[in-house]
Amino acid sequence: MASASTAKAERRLARYTEKRLAAARGEPTVLSPMGWVRFGLRMFAIVAVLVVLVPLHYLYRVFAYGSPFPMWFLRFAARIVGARVRTVGTPLRRDVFFISNHISWIDILALAGASGTAFVAKQELSEVPVIGWLCRLNRTVFVKRENRMGVAEQINALKEALQDNWSVTVFPEGTVTDGHSLLPFKSSMLSVLEPPPPGVMVQPVMLDYGPVAEEIGWIGEETGVNNAKRIMARRGTFRLTITFLEPFSPEDHRGRKAIASKAREEIEAALVATLGKPLRDFEHVVDAVRYRPKAVDTTES
């Protein structure tokens, strides 16, 4: 017979699962009074950290380039929303192109907080109030994926970032998944590595949220606002492990597709080893990467 504590944990998991599935269908999450309190306290803490660090950032920039304060803010923000980040492996600090799987907007907070990396993000994000400004503070390179005429300009922006000794991160799946799947990698933004800038390495990164990956994931029809509200209102903390895998030279691989394939292979192997089981097909339609889940054969044999 299950203990009282086990039964309580199972009931809590069932409630979280119900909320997660409803959110994935696009239904707004209804918060409890305590949920609103937790959400409000976390928002207040994020604003307080901003008020302290942003003036320090601009003051630092008067005297030197490469302020550490955006990285510190993102590190604190990840902790405030509940992530307890653990890093495995050693991230390269400069002249590196990180390639990572993608589960949540928290990935950005945690990865930047752990390594100081800049990101490649959709142009639309730059137009979001406050968020766009924060992205620019962290040297985000904005791209228009549908703007084929501007691809060369976007690649040049990435090359300039790498030439300035930045570390840059891309999420080549093109969207977020559930922590148990891995979509095909789009290689278009790896064109910056054709040919690779001198001395630049590629380092695959595997993100793992453990047993709460599905709950944290921003998938299906859920809006970004609802996901942020739902995550910041949840009780307790959660573990996020960032595994920096063995870096490799892009010069050892022929072109961006081969580089994307090598990085995906390394990330998939690490994710399978962490989960202890094969990856599953992602059940949601993702037109952005031309991916649709396999059709289920319902006919009887």
Can you characterise this structure?
- The chain has 301 residues and is α/β, with parallel strands linked by helices.
- The chain is 42% helix and 13% strand.
- The protein has helices spanning 4-24, 33-63, 69-80, 106-115, 131-137, 151-163, 213-216, 224-232, 256-275; strands at residues 83-88, 96-100, 118-122, 141-143, 167-170, 201-208, 238-244.
- It has a seven-stranded mixed sheet with strand order 1-7-6-2-5-3-4, sandwiched between helices.
- Helix 5 links the parallel strand 3 and strand 4 (141-143).
- Helix 2 (33-63) packs antiparallel against helix 3 and helix 2 packs across helix 8.
- It starts with a helix and ends in a 26-residue tail after the last helix.
Properties at a glance:
alpha/beta; seven-stranded mixed sheet; 42% helix
Tell me the fraction of residues in β-strands, as a range. 5-15%
Mean pLDDT: 81
Q: What is the string of helix and strand elements?
A: HHHEEHEHEHEEHHEH
* Largest sheet: spatial strand order: 1-7-6-2-5-3-4
* Largest beta-sheet details: 7 strands, mixed
Total strand segments: 7
- Annotation field: number of helices: 9
**Are there runs of 5+ residues with pLDDT below 50, and where?**
none
For the CA atoms, what is the radius of gyration? 20 Å
> Helicity, in percent?
40-55%
- Overall structural class, as computed from helix and strand content, comes to alpha/beta
What is the molecular shape? globular
